[in-house]
Amino acid sequence: MANGLSGMDMLRFAASLVLVLCLLGGLLWALKRMQSGVRAGGGQRQLHVIDAVSVGPRQKIALVRVGDRDVLVGVSPTQLTALGSWPASVDVSEMVDAA
Question: Whole-prediction pTM value?
Answer without folding.
Answer: 0.48
